[in-house]
Amino acid sequence: MRAPSARTLARASLVLAILGAVAMLFLPTVSMQSITVRDAFDGAGRTVTRSWQVSLLSSEGAWVVWLAAVPVLLAGAPIAFERTRARRVARIVSAVALTLGVLVSMLSVGVFFLPSAALMIAAAARADAASVPAPPVPTRPA
């Protein structure tokens, strides 16, 4: 079985970034709690605690869509350079930026984009077929 090309790995990284953004926005990741103290007339109070989980989008509002778009744009940027000489540089820059973003935000939303960063690192490390020099042609001694 042949190993996937750098182009395939970069595209898979974009797909995983999109899936990570959707998961970050819509999975119930935020815990909410409401504590109500009710005082009865006889002096015996009652505390009611209610806990639930909501999505980041419903908790923080629409601005988090912009936050989720950053890793998607970083993972998608190398695709714009696929037909240029800068494609490997674009993959390296994207891999570094995604990795730094994941490391900085690992305790909150970075974990959603870890698979995307890993695939982009693999895409950046893999040489394209066009950039690998051809083996030398043997010549016959004269």
Question: How would you sum up this structure in a few lines?
Answer:
The protein has 142 residues and is of the alpha+beta class. Helix content is 52%, strand content 15%. The protein has a two-stranded antiparallel sheet with strand order 1-2.
Description:
The chain is of the alpha+beta class and 142 residues long. The chain has a domain at 6-27 and 60-129. The chain is 52% helix and 15% strand. Helix 1 packs antiparallel against helix 3 and helix 1 (6-26) runs antiparallel to helix 5 (114-125). The two termini are 42 Å apart.
Structural class by SSE content = alpha+beta
Largest sheet: number of strands, sense, barrel closure: 2 strands, antiparallel
Number of discrete helical segments: 5
| pLDDT averaged residue by residue | 87
Radius of gyration, in angstroms, nearest whole number = 24 Å
In the predicted model, the low-confidence regions spanning at least 5 consecutive residues are none
Layout of helices and strands, plus pairs?
Elements: H1 6-26, E1 28-38, E2 46-55, H2 56-60, H3 63-80, H4 87-104, H5 114-125
Antiparallel strand pairs: 1-2
Helix pairs in contact: 1-3, 1-5, 3-4, 4-5
Features:
alpha+beta, rod-shaped
